[in-house]
Amino acid sequence: MRRREDHEDKTYFRSERVFAMNGQWYFGAREGDCGPFRTQEIARAALARFINEKVELAAFQKSREHEVRKPKMTLAERLKIADVAAEAPSRTLDSAPELLI
Questions:
Q1: Quick count: other Cβ atoms within 10 Å of Cβ 89?
Q2: What is the dihedral of CA 19, 22, 25, 30, to 10 degrees?
Q3: Judging by DSSP bridges, how do beta strands 32-37 and 24-29 pair with one another?
Q4: Where would you tag: which of 5, 28, 48, 73 has the fewest CB atoms within 10 A of its CB?
Q5: For every one of its 101 residues, what pLDDT tens digit does the chain have, with 9 covering 90 and above?
Q6: Which residues contact 25 (CB under 8 A, 6 or more apart)?
Q7: CA of 90: how far to CAs of 4, 85, 86, 96, 98, in Å?
Q8: pTM metric for this prediction
Q9: pLDDT at 23
Q10: Closest to 42 in 3D by CA, of 21, 55, 24
Q11: Counting beta carbons within 10 angstroms of the beta carbon of residue 47, is it exposed (0 to 12), middle (13 to 18) or buried (19 or more)?
């Protein structure tokens, strides 16, 4: 595969994601190596769970992009609300309604 900026062909190697190092098992991801795990099977199961979580997270984030978001109030709108609240007559204890218990 060659990009326009590349002047020479490069060979890309696909490597196994699950590998052993110092008698323990790990799996490689973009975020870095994850592990150690006691066995290769446990490492593969953890890798599958990791991939499923990433897929679910991506789907959730994509669903949130399409959600209609409520527009934020402008500063002028907030100041207008504050002015209206300041102009409203304040209630005193005498004008407060009675509580019926």
A1: 6
A2: -60
A3: antiparallel
A4: 5
A5: 556 666 667 666 667 899 999 999 999 999 999 999 999 999 999 999 999 999 999 999 888 877 667 778 888 888 888 787 777 765 555 565 666 66
A6: 18, 19, 35, 36, 37, 38, 39, 40, 42, 43
A7: 71, 9, 8, 10, 17
A8: 0.52
A9: 94
A10: 24
A11: buried
Residue type, 97: P
Residue carrying structure tokens 């209206």: 84
Residues composing the chain: 101
